[in-house]
From TrEMBL:
This is Putative metal-binding membrane protein. InterPro entries: PpoB2-like (IPR018688). Keywords: Membrane, Transmembrane, Transmembrane helix. The lineage of its organism: Bacteria, Pseudomonadati, Pseudomonadota, Gammaproteobacteria, Oceanospirillales. Coiled coil: none annotated. The keyword Membrane applies. It comes from the Bacteria. The chain crosses the membrane at residues 51-73, 94-117, 189-212, 232-254.
């Protein structure tokens, strides 16, 4: 039995997180259906009419919803296994909370870094006349980058770690709250190594754009837990590169797949 297959039953051992994931998706769907998508779609350093601190606070809230919807499903096998092995140590609930905190710290740091990078690129674009009228170059470039990363050795190494949660746990498990936090950081780092480029796409299309959110979430989940997930990586990479090139050089009037449909 493979490590991935063995990990699948662990999904049912984290009902609270499953509820959080469901709530995050329902919130994203409800926000779009009710026309309040701006509250979870926020992905700019400074929103119109907002102070910087308020804009950052709104982003952090929206980003946590986004992570709960897209990334927590991919880590449920690890959560289930950690719940099993941590049950015999002192304060197991606190250890589990510490593990999740470490995982979320990694992804929150990435979100802030990506937010600042996008703000910097937008600022540079305003001063570069050749780039400012061509936002499709940035959108297409991010897609090409995400596609190219699918072929990298780093992607393959990190995906191998994520697809074998039992082996990862055996190698890095330590008892206690600090051990749980360290394990969460390590697991989050490999998860980030698998998915950062795909998640970067969401900063171009809008972090709550359901038309991109759902397929990318399904892709990242299947890459990690699907029976043939590893075989899907390179074909997806080729498709993303092709789509990125089409976005960059597409003819006039060609529909832009990167524009958030809710904001068109």
């Amino acid at each position: 039995m493979s490590a991935v297959t063995a990990a699948r039953p662990a999904w049912g051992r984290a009902p609270l997180l499953a509820g959080v994931i469901l709530a995050a998706w329902l919130l994203a769907i409800a926000a779009e259906l009710t026309g309040q998508v701006q509250w979870v779609h926020h992905h700019r350093l400074v929103a119109d009419g907002m102070a910087l601190w308020a804009s950052l606070a709104l982003f952090l809230v929206a980003w946590q919803v986004h992570i709960a919807a897209m990334m927590l499903p991919t880590t449920l096998p690890m959560v289930g296994l950690y719940r099993q092995v941590a049950v015999g140590q002192p304060h197991p609930r606190l250890a589990r909370a510490s593990f999740l905190s470490g995982y979320l710290v990694v992804w929150t740091a990435f979100g802030l870094a990506a937010l600042l990078a996008m703000a910097l690129l937008e600022g540079l674009g305003a001063h570069w006349p050749w780039l400012h009228p061509r936002p499709e170059w940035l959108a297409g470039g991010v897609l090409v980058l995400a596609g190219a990363f699918q072929f990298s050795a780093l992607k393959a190494r990190c995906l191998d770690k994520c697809r074998a949660p039992r082996a990862f746990l055996l190698n890095h498990y330590r008892r206690g709250v600090a051990g749980g936090f360290d394990l969460g950081l390590r697991h989050g780092a490999f998860c980030l190594g698998c998915c950062w480029a795909l998640m970067l796409v969401m900063f171009v299309v809008g972090i709550a754009n359901l038309a991109w959110m759902a397929p990318l979430a399904a892709l990242m989940l299947y890459e990690k837990v699907g029976r043939h997930g590893a075989r899907l990586v390179r074909p997806v990479g080729a498709a993303l590169i092709l789509l990125g090139l089409l976005v960059m050089v597409g003819p006039a009037g060609w529909p832009d797949p990167m524009v958030p449909h809710a904001l068109q």
